[in-house]
Structures are given as C-alpha cells and as structure tokens.
Design brief:
31% of the residues lie in helices and 23% in strands. By secondary structure, it is of the alpha/beta class. It has a single domain, classed as Spore Coat Polysaccharide Biosynthesis Protein SpsA, Chain A (Alpha-Beta Complex), CATH 3.90.550.10. Strands 6, 7, 10, 11 and 12 form a five-stranded mixed β-sheet that branches. A three-stranded parallel β-sheet has the order 1-4-5. A two-stranded antiparallel sheet has the order 2-3. A hairpin with a 2-residue loop joins β2 and β3.
C-alpha cells in the first residue's frame, strides 16, 4: 500500500506532519496501518524531506512492515504515488493499493470488499465510490457506466448538485501501477488551479483502455478526508462512536 503523506498539519493547528497528527489520541498513520493490516503485505509512506525524521521515529515504534520514500517537491499526488515505483517490493507486487493519509474513516468492510473485487475480477483498478450532494469530486459516466471524465471542485470545474466521488482508496493491478500509470504520467495534465499533477485524471484515462470496477462505500463518513479542524472533529466523533460499538 502506497500512502502519500507529504502534507503538513498546519491547517489542523499542529506543527507535526499531517500523517502523525493525533485523532482521538492516535496518529492518523496508526489508523491506516491497523485498517489494512492483513490485507496488504507492506506499507510505503511517501513523506516530505522535512517530515522524514519525525515519521521515521513514529514508524520505528510500530510492529508493521513499513518503508519510507521521500517526495522532494510538492508537485501533486500523481508524482507522490510514483515516487516509490522502483522499490523492489513494488516491482514484484501483484496489487498496489493507494490511500490518502487522512482517509482514516474507511471501514474494514469496505477494505475487505476492495480485496475481494480485485481477487475475483480482471480489473486493473477497483475503488469504492459514494454518491452524495455537493461533491468535491464527480465521475462522469457514459450510458454503459464507463467513467469518461473526472470533475474536481478544487480545479474550478463546474460541479453537479449530486455526484459520485471516490473515498481516497484505490486498488491497482501490478501492471496498472508499474506500466500504465507511468505511461499516463508522461503526458499528465497540470491542474488548472492547483498547478499540480493529480492522480484522479488517470482513472478515466485508464477506463478508456481497460477494466475498472467500482462499488458503493459502506458509509458516507468514509469519504471525509481530514483537511480542516472541522473535519478532524467529525471524523474523531465518528471513530469514537465506532469504537464504542
């Protein structure tokens, strides 16, 4: 599993790298490691140069198999995902999962379904999606259900009132990660507003040439990434309720 985690926690009121900002007393990274333990063989955490020492110190104290990779410049999620592409473990992996470091409300049920979907189909990419109002991301599909385009609010795209978005969790075949994603990256567009190279446009590009499978996420809260103090509070309350069950 590749976890892009080069962001800072400044918008959350923390001086720590975002990936180790605590939620209910536990680092975001710890939720990721626990959620996907047993489903993936190894974690590759992509960090900024200034976060390397702090994140390494945190990882040493865990029991999980972790590698760290450094993204030298903040040029976008696409580049972050490709940073560890030459790692020996990724050169031989049958599947490469990707999740954003702040998507910690994804349920084990959704993670298990992603594993089953990839194991039982020939899809080169599988992902949970969620339909809802005021989407931040929206996948446009044709009449046969194939994804044709991705709209992104942060890039200034006009968004529908109700849309279909990802939840920050993706499962790629080894071929899709090692061969098709780098091919896409050769001509990947730069975001109109962010000026970053985003991973999401890879999805319609890939859908035009191979099989993609989607399935509904288990709960709307799974789609919330922690980008603001308000997000942190909502996710913390949700996870607190989950742990009480």
């Amino acid at each position: 599993m590749v976890v892009p985690a080069a962001g800072r926690g400044s918008r959350l009121g923390s001086a720590l790298p975002k990936v180790v900002v605590p939620v209910n007393g536990r680092a975001m990274l710890d939720y990721i490691l626990e959620r996907y333990s047993g489903l993936v063989d190894r974690f590759v955490i992509v960090v900024s140069p200034e976060a390397l020492a702090i994140v390494r110190s945190h990882c040493i104290a865990t029991e999980f198999p972790i590698e760290l990779a450094v993204q030298d410049s903040p040029t976008g999620m696409l580049d972050a995902i490709l940073v560890p592409a030459r790692s020996p473990i990724l050169r031989s992996a049958d599947q490469v999962w990707i999740t954003w470091c702040d998507q910690i409300a994804v349920s084990r049920a959704t993670a298990d379904r992603l594993a089953r979907t990839l194991d039982q189909s020939s899809a080169d990419l599988a992902m949970p999606t969620l339909k809802g109002e005021s989407p931040y991301i929206h996948f446009e599909r044709d009449t046969e259900g194939r994804i044709l385009r991705v709209l992104q609010r942060r890039e200034g795209d006009p968004m529908p009132a109700v849309g279909e978005s990802d939840i920050g969790l993706f499962g790629l075949s080894g071929i899709a990660y090692r061969e098709l994603l780098p091919r896409f990256a050769e001509t990947a567009p730069v975001g109109t507003s962010t000026r970053e190279r985003n991973f999401l446009p890879f999805i319609p590009w890939l859908a035009a040439q191979t099989l993609i499978q989607t399935f509904p996420a288990a709960d709307p809260m799974e789609a919330i990434g922690i980008n603001t103090v308000e997000d942190l509070g909502r996710v913390a309350a949700f996870l607190g309720r989950e742990s009480d069950r």
